[in-house]
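User: Let's play a game. I give you a shape written as tokens, and you guess the letters that built it. Ready? Here's round one.
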């Protein structure tokens, strides 16, 4: 996927357009139906429209935007687009890194989380449901395209901060939705979480070049909220000592993964340049 300035602008324009559409329909027009369904569990035509628009256009806005660019502007085709999402160069390394990050989050939840009363099977069930509807829906645009596009134009930390800021603002309408799982969360606590996640996901993508790896990690983090109180676990502010220690560890591991991935890329680039230089001089087997 080309990361030109025009594609960046088009992506952001499409995401904003879908956000405005969802804000008007979901928050201004159909919100009463969602509140009523939460209170009495009665399905109505209004709530069906609310759920359908949210499922198709709200969270998947980054995916829809990238799909439109891929099919209509870049003309790469649906098959190539899906192949890009699921492409993984080093499968074993990707599984180890992604699984390790998921395990760290789970251990923190087991030790410090407050159960919300849901059955444990909701975690794996929620995880499987969230992979397409949350993970792929978001990470296709945020880490698959926008983060590396910004990184081509500025240093990694600044590209992460910019992507994280856009990602944070994109979520803010949830604070106007009393049926959202973020309703009542601390904006500061959620902001800290968002920026740490932005570093973790950007570092994971940098190390794996895999959109699906980021989608799996993102989905697992969200799925933890299916069985634990999300606000107390991730979004509280200032948070207890354990939460803040975990945040520091989480950010430290993300930075370490970024540095490791950076060095690997530099080694690859040096090896590539050395090979090209040797090929040009006709000394392919020459070593110093």
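Assistant: Ready! My guess for every position:
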């Amino acid at each position: 996927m080309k990361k030109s300035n025009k594609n960046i602008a088009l992506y952001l324009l499409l995401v904003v357009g879908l956000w405005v559409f969802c804000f008007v329909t979901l928050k201004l027009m159909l919100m009463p139906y969602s509140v009523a369904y939460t209170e009495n569990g009665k399905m109505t035509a209004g709530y069906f429209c609310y759920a359908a628009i949210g499922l198709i256009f709200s969270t998947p806005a980054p995916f829809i935007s990238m799909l439109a660019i891929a099919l209509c502007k870049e003309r790469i085709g649906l098959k190539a687009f899906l192949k890009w999402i699921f492409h993984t160069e080093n499968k074993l390394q990707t599984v180890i890194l992604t699984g390790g990050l998921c395990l760290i989050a789970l251990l923190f939840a087991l030790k410090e989380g407050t159960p919300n009363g849901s059955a444990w099977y909701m975690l794996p069930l929620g995880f499987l449901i969230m992979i397409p509807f949350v993970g792929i829906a978001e990470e296709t645009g945020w880490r698959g395209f926008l983060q590396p596009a910004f990184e081509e134009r500025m240093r990694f930390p600044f590209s992460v901060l910019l992507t994280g800021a856009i990602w944070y603002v994109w979520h803010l309408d949830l604070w106007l939705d009393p049926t959202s799982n973020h309703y009542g969360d601390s904006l500061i606590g959620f902001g800290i979480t968002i920026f740490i996640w932005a570093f973790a996901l950007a570092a994971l993508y940098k190390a794996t070049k895999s959109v699906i790896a980021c989608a799996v990690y993102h989905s697992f983090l969200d799925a933890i909220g299916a069985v634990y109180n999300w606000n107390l676990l991730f979004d509280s502010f200032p948070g207890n000592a354990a939460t803040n220690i975990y945040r520091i560890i989480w950010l430290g591991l993300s930075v370490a993964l970024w540095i490791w991935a950076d060095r690997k890329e530099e080694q690859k680039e040096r090896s590539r340049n050395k090979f090209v230089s040797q090929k040009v001089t006709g000394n392919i087997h020459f070593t110093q």
